[in-house]
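// run 5 | inverse folding | seed 20
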């Protein structure tokens, strides 16, 4: 699939790097954007097909970035309260944190990257903890509506 060598970005958690090479990476969305630009045909991941004996579907960095951009647009348009940080009455207003129940699908990563790209805090919960999370949410709902 890839026709060019993979270009690794420079990054440092301890110091700011010069921005002359477009690779001063600080976030997952920035890393995906870098790879979509410089390594577009390289494999981002392989998505298995549940219940089929078919080979996993390869998803490139360019395809993953496009999926994230489309997801960002859909979330901003269709989910109330999802927005980039914005100024309201002289204060920065961020969207509420979004929790994602984790599974094993690439869609989880796409949603997380889209939300992070919009500046929305994201939390996740492993699939094994769903019963616990649902119990907490039910108790919170009951507490807020009593």
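// decoded
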């Amino acid at each position: 699939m890839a026709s060019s060598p993979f270009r690794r970005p420079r990054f440092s958690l301890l110091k700011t790097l010069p921005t002359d090479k477009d690779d001063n990476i600080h976030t997952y969305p920035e890393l995906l954007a870098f790879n979509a630009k410089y390594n577009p045909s390289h494999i981002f991941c392989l998505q298995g097909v549940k219940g089929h004996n078919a080979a996993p579907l390869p998803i490139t960095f360019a395809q993953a970035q496009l999926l994230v951009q489309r997801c960002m647009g859909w979330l901003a348009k269709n989910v109330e309260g999802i927005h980039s940080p914005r100024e309201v009455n002289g204060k920065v207003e961020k969207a509420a944190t979004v929790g994602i129940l984790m599974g094993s699908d690439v869609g989880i990563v796409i949603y997380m990257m889209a939300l992070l790209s919009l500046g929305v805090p994201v939390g996740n919960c492993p699939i094994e903890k769903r019963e616990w999370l649902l119990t907490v949410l039910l108790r919170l709902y009951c507490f807020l509506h009593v």
